[in-house]
Amino acid sequence: MTGDRVPGRTRDDTGCHILHVDMDAFYVGVEIRDRPELTGVPVIVGAASGRSVVLSASYQARAFGVRSAMPMMRARRLCPQAVIIPPTHGLYAAVSREVMAVFRSVTPEVEPLALDEAFLDISGALRRLGPPAQIGELIRATVRGQQGITCSVGVATCKFIAKLASIHCKPDGLLVIPADGILEFLHPLPVSALWGVGERTGRVLAGLGLRTVADIAHTPPATLERGLGRAAGAHLAALAWGRDDRKVVPGSLEKSIGAEETFASDVADPALIRRELLRLSGRTARGLRAAGCAARTVVVKLRLADFTTITRSRTLPEPTDVAQQVYSTACELYAAAGLDAGARLRLVGVRASGLVPAAAAEAQLAFGDRPASWREAERAVDRIAGRFGTDAVRPAALVDGHPQQS
DNA sequence: TCTGGGGTCCTGCGGCTG
DNA sequence: TCTGCAGCCGCAGGACCC
Questions:
Q1: Strand B: which bases are under 7 Å from protein Cβ?
Q2: Is strand B within 7 Å of residue A297 (CB)?
Q3: Which nucleotide is closest, CA of A196 to its C1'?
Q4: Domain A1-179 in CATH: superfamily?
Q5: A187-240: which CATH topology?
Q6: Which of A225, A266, A299, A320 sits between 20 and 30 A of A365, alpha carbons compared?
Q7: Contacts of A168 (CB under 8 A, 6+ apart)
Q8: For residue range A307-334, what is the model confidence (pLDDT) as tens digits?
Q9: For strand C, which residues in window 214-253 of chain A come within 7 Å by CB?
């Protein structure tokens, strides 16, 4: 392996100002921290029943072939002795906020990618805290000391290589990829190591006879662009030579907010589907209000029993954060999808995109209309939910035993 | 094997507008 | 008034990531 996984490294980290910090098996790590008797035991976080998948697996469970995103039924067959823990998302979000605060104590240039990982640009911290590898070790020690969980750190000259480095030193490691060692590290890797190469793209590349990153690097960009499209082809050609000039962008605003849910068994009843749309619209609108956003576009996602997925979207005249508006648009989109009578759905989703700050939206909606009064009513519900939980107040149509609305 | 839920980004098409 | 064109935007779908 290129670089060092342990403190006291000898690799030259000059110019390696980008860190990628990735928590190790994050959800499982948090659960084990609070239940130390599970240390060293195969642990899986995920809903135990229904059509759920593995959210996170301990390294002991991974030894049995369990992977995240694997159907839970299969995971249980592979590792029947695993302890299965239902997820506690609120706890993970709270730990994530603490960990991000550790990162921001090192540098304000922190770009979270998910709850459990972030890029850091430490250019401005070098004089205060020392060379990059030393800062990486400081972060690892602080997170372990404060939160009782481990993380891995990739140190490189750009985001893409830093991310690959953190993957390669997992778990509980640190890896520096020096500027003059990038190609030696990168070129033997399989094409799937590149950002943007999943199952489909991997098949196209295999069809071109390309198996390693070096193969891609030595293929004319025009060939890649013919096979993959202009943007993806050019993107892969650049990555294969370690070129990635994307900057670390601190705390960027979300682009969309939504909610979706898979039914326990497929549903054909339009009334039940509309009821689910009502619930998801409420969740989506709450998410918008919590983020201080309003959305211009409502997207409905419908996944049929055979797994084909249909999306329908509509852009509203004015942005909204009101569940009633989201719901009525979602119902119109569902109707407009023109599904056959009796078409069975396994999943429905509602997403709001084209986000703008809510303050800007309110200025447009200040001309006294019904959405304003709906908004006030829903904000009052938010306040009650904040005190008594989200089940304390809900639409009458979602109370068990209430007749279905049509 | 049997596929969650939260997202982002890209492509291609069609309509609108200057 | 019609046509061609470019640019923009909305929309649908797909691929991908964690």
A1: 1-12
A2: no
A3: C16
A4: Reverse transcriptase/Diguanylate cyclase domain (3.30.70.270)
A5: DNA polymerase; domain 1 (1.10.150)
A6: A299
A7: A1, A154, A175
A8: 888 888 888 888 888 898 899 889 888 8
A9: none
